[in-house]
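>> received
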Amino acid sequence: MRYHCQVQIRNYEIGPDGALHHGQLMRLLQYAATYASDIAGMDSTWYTDNRTAWVLRGLRAEYLQPAYENDVIDIETWLSDVRRVRGNREYVLHRPKDGQLIARAQADWVYVDRASLAPLRIPAEALAQFKHEPGTASGMGLWLAGEPTGEVYLHERSVQHHELDMMRHVNNAVYFDWFEQAYAEASGMLPATIAGNAIEFMRGAQLGDSVVIHTQRTQSPNHTTPVWRQEIRHRQSNDLIAVNSLLSLSFAQRP
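>> returned
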């Protein structure tokens, strides 16, 4: 079953380049997923009562057109694949006033016990409500990081209160902010030159954690424009927190 919601872009979501931040776009995707669950009868109270939650294990997003202040964006979302404990949710974002496709994304959500974060079988009632549509992925391209072509750039930071979600972990959209900042510092290019992100989440970062973001340009085996390999690691333990393959526009396309 497909769900639609419309959002209006607010001026504080706009960056210095005049366009919507990628991290803010990720927050819109989170809102759309929550909206779909609410409409299906599983709101935040339902998850609290059942002591469960959905956690994001991976997200691939492709940015096709910028969105601007006061734009109204239609977000269409649906489940394209469901397995025992996880499901793929698709997102397509359009601007109705001109019909432009703004972005598309696919998220890998895992159903977990709220306390232990151990995966749980998705309840039959949830599957019945969501009515997933097998084989209907939104059709994004594929980009892979390849052999490194430059030095590793290191960006260090500590987790702060305003970056946490209700489960006391860093909100997934914040990782997009971190990756974007590290890419801009490493490349000297504007965030608007980012064409896509493919992120895998290994574990959550918590308040006070110090992290190091590794960013390195690579020669992609399947893409002509640069693909940057990024990792977030815990500073003390070196545990891997998240990995990103960032697709960049060519230098000729730099705004």
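>> The chain has two domains: 3-130, 147-253.
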